[in-house]
Amino acid sequence: MKILIIEDEQELLNSMLTYLRGENYVCESAASYEAARQKIESFSYDCILLDITLPGGNGLVLLEELKTDNKTSGIIIISAKDSITDKIKGLDLGADDYLSKPFHLSELNARISAVIRRRHFSGSTVLTFHEIVVDLIAKTILVHKKPVDLTRKEYDLLLYLALNKNRVVSKNAIAEHLSGDSVALFDNFDFIYTHMKNLKRKLHQAGSRDYIKSIYGMGYKFEV
Amino acid sequence: MKILIIEDEQELLNSMLTYLRGENYVCESAASYEAARQKIESFSYDCILLDITLPGGNGLVLLEELKTDNKTSGIIIISAKDSITDKIKGLDLGADDYLSKPFHLSELNARISAVIRRRHFSGSTVLTFHEIVVDLIAKTILVHKKPVDLTRKEYDLLLYLALNKNRVVSKNAIAEHLSGDSVALFDNFDFIYTHMKNLKRKLHQAGSRDYIKSIYGMGYKFEV
DNA sequence: GCTAAAACTGAAGAGATCCTGACGAAAAGA
DNA sequence: TCTTTTCGTCAGGATCTCTTCAGTTTTAGC
């Protein structure tokens, strides 16, 4: 699978490249719309990550071109939070999905595979783990096809664990993800214990098996 | 995995220590180049975080020394944004990566594990020794494709042995690697005996052959 | 073989980590 | 505004891990 990343922030770009290559995607990058346009004309990509807030050009114009060219690439818009307009949200402009900065690389990865899956296999943006189904767009959880009433934090927590399935995730990482604050340092993880407890209880009551394992001294693991 | 943090800003240092210890790294710190030099001479680290803009000494000189000493440590340069020269960016000076302040601790963490992977494991995320598989990202050990649950110390111990496969590692080296304060020589290796015993037992019970040999008077060897 | 040093073992206390229920604060919804 | 829900903190207790210790076995050298 081949991905084009259109992004000018060097550090973010590097992170994305490293992560996505680690996920076995073939990645190329462009730091300007002009460079991107050239690449798109010459090569084909399964997915294009488009930062629409680059200096020196309007990303929406590029988006227009992309859609009229009826290429088969899936397109995910990336943008600062306050640049996400209702039009983008509604995906009226023809993108397949959008993600606002700052985002987590694991979430980006999930979106990419969802978009690619949909394009190639006309699926939807859901993640399925046995009886648990996560709908990324609706932000809902189904267990045995029945919705489970989770709070926002609980949903975030489950999604994060699910995106990192079969990996041990540290409490540092969880705390950062839940709080949305990527700068803060956490001296106490009590709130994680509480959310974890409630999440586990709700999933259990809904009839799910206990996929969330606690790994003493290391963190948690969503094991499927 | 053991890390040396060379940094004089106390607050930042504390954040880094707390975070990285939370990620199960064994961490030590030095607030000056002189202190750092001493530690580096006496002990070995898997990764060194080097702030090159400390007062009272030039970090680049220390970097030079580090590279000529051909130690196996990975080196990540940390510095204020405007001190990042093109040379550093190109990593011509021999560092493995660089990070400009301010940075996110999770980003630092990602860089560290990438550097360690590159240096020690030639970039791979899983190590395979016949029926034993070490997944560095999942932080999980598989024997015959089934997970074996190890404690932190047991996992670290196995990783350290695997890292030095087919070499004899002394108990001093193991002790230094497992427990943070490398102040003095250890007079008592009882805790190693216990961890080793438990590790061996768990691997054996999981159906693995006994690759860990005890070399009388020398140490241990992971023989594959 | 004998001896002393080194290595192993099981048990157990100390210590760290995690879970739980309850409660007030904060946020969201009516 | 008032009500309801969600969130984070806290303290007590449960659980798991680490280290130490004492007793036993193995090893190398004589």
Question: Descriptors for this entry?
Answer:
homodimer; 12 strands; 23% strand; alpha/beta; globular; 224 residues; 5-stranded parallel β-sheet; DNA-binding
Descriptive account of the structure:
- Two copies of one chain form a homodimer.
- The first copy, chain A, is α/β, with parallel strands linked by helices and 224 residues long.
- Chain A is 41% helix and 23% strand.
- In chain A, the strands form three sheets. In chain A, strands 2-1-3-4-5 form a five-stranded parallel β-sheet, with helices on both faces. In chain A, strands 6-7-8-9 form a four-stranded antiparallel β-sheet, covered by helices on one side.
- The mean pLDDT of chain A is 84.
- Chains A and B meet through helix 1 and helix 7 of A and helix 1 and helix 5 of B.
- The structure holds a DNA duplex (30 and 30 nucleotides).
SSE layout and pairing:
The structure is a homodimer of 224-residue chains.
Chain A: E1 2-6, H1 10-22, E2 26-30, H2 33-42, E3 47-51, H3 59-68, E4 74-80, H4 86-89, E5 97-101, H5 105-121, E6 126-129, E7 132-135, E8 140-143, E9 146-148, H6 152-163, E10 168-169, H7 171-179, H8 190-205, E11 212-215, E12 219-222
Parallel strand pairs in A: 1-2, 1-3, 3-4, 4-5
Antiparallel strand pairs in A: 6-7, 7-8, 8-9, 10-12, 11-12
Helix pairs in contact in A: 6-8
The structure holds a DNA duplex (30 and 30 nucleotides).
